[in-house]
Design a protein that fits this description.
Blueprint (H helix, E strand, L loop, with lengths): L3 E4 L6 E4 L2 H6 L3 H11 L1 E4 L6 H11 L11 E3 L9 H4 L18 E8 L7 E5 H6 L3 H7 L3 E5 H8 L5 H8 L3 E5 L1 E3 L5 E3 L5 E4 L4 H15 L5 E4 L6 E5 L3 E5 L9 E7 L8
Parallel strand pairs: 2-3
Antiparallel strand pairs: 1-2, 3-13, 4-15, 5-13, 5-15, 6-12, 6-14, 7-8, 7-11, 9-10
The chain binds fe (ii) ion.
Fe (ii) ion binds next to loops.
């Protein structure tokens, strides 16, 4: 038996049709890993995994991250369920998870459990394809640039006018300097940008801002983006090392609930 996969657009996204037993059995784990790296996003429509099945499937693909309850982290804006709900509002802006660490998570797996009646789609941008298609002049200009990432940078999108105390709280999380172009062990290159990118090292504020906005704008053009329209029971996996993602706005009181598992990172941004 082979895996049935179809591309969702020319440059990003694939859909796999498989039954739960096959996925949890792990028979196709290396094919799925390869597809994930090549396509950025894999969709399993209305597969309706239980939490236990999601955890078991995640384990077939790598090392599961221990977070949430029994490895399931509940993505919800309800602070009674998830204490860090406030920070999740940063997810409405293009970002890569884990830019404050040197080894970002490899991938996230998200199950749609309860949806908002409007909005709440998740968009993914293929940052390998976006790099590959850059004009040669741009590739040369950015080849050795470094970018400072911070939690504060992303929080300014959510709360543009923080109190001094709030700013200090954000700044306590520190900064992380990363290459703008990530050369992966495979030799492939991707852009490391998004809402956590504060500024380019050694550039004026104006030039730095112009470059970061221009690259984000470039990378989120339609040909590099897959937008997932959720149905309850869908499972979506994305390669966090070769994509950016964001959620489209939805009613924060809608009760939207996603169950997430994560795969531990295997490769640092820079060696
Ligand atoms: Fe995220």
């Amino acid at each position: 038996m082979s895996l049935e996969a179809i591309n969702l657009s020319p440059r990003v996204g694939a859909e796999i049709k498989a039954d739960v037993e096959t996925l949890v059995g792990g028979e196709f784990s290396s094919e799925i890993r390869d597809l994930l790296e090549n396509r950025g996003v894999i969709v399993f429509r209305q597969i309706n995994l239980t939490d236990e099945q999601q955890v078991a499937f995640t384990r077939t693909l790598g090392t599961i991250v221990d977070e949430g309850e029994n490895y399931i982290y509940k993505v919800t804006m309800d602070p009674e369920v998830t204490a860090t709900a406030e920070y999740l509002k940063g997810a409405f802006y293009w970002h890569i998870d884990g830019t404050m660490q040197n080894v970002p998570v490899l991938a996230s797996l998200l199950s749609g459990r309860r949806l908002s009646p409007t909005g709440g789609q998740t968009e993914f941008s293929n940052t390998y394809a976006a790099y590959d298609d850059l004009p040669q002049d741009d590739k040369e200009e950015i080849a050795s640039l470094e970018v400072v990432h911070s939690l504060a940078a992303t929080q300014f999108y959510v709360k543009p006018e923080p109190t001094y105390a709030e700013l200090q709280e954000w700044q306590r999380k520190g900064t992380n300097t990363l290459p703008l172009v990530w050369t992966h062990r495979s030799g492939r290159k991707s852009l490391v940008i998004g809402s956590t990118a504060s500024h380019v090292v050694g550039m004026t504020f104006e030039k730095s801002q112009a470059l970061l906005v221009r690259l984000r704008d470039w990378a989120t053009q339609p040909q590099f983006v897959y937008r997932h329209e959720w149905s309850v029971g869908d499972l979506v996996i994305w390669d966090n090392t070769g994509t950016m993602h964001r959620a489209l706005h939805y009613d924060l009181d809608s009760g939207r609930m996603m169950h997430r598992t994560k795969l531990q990172g295997e490769e640092p941004f820079a060696t």
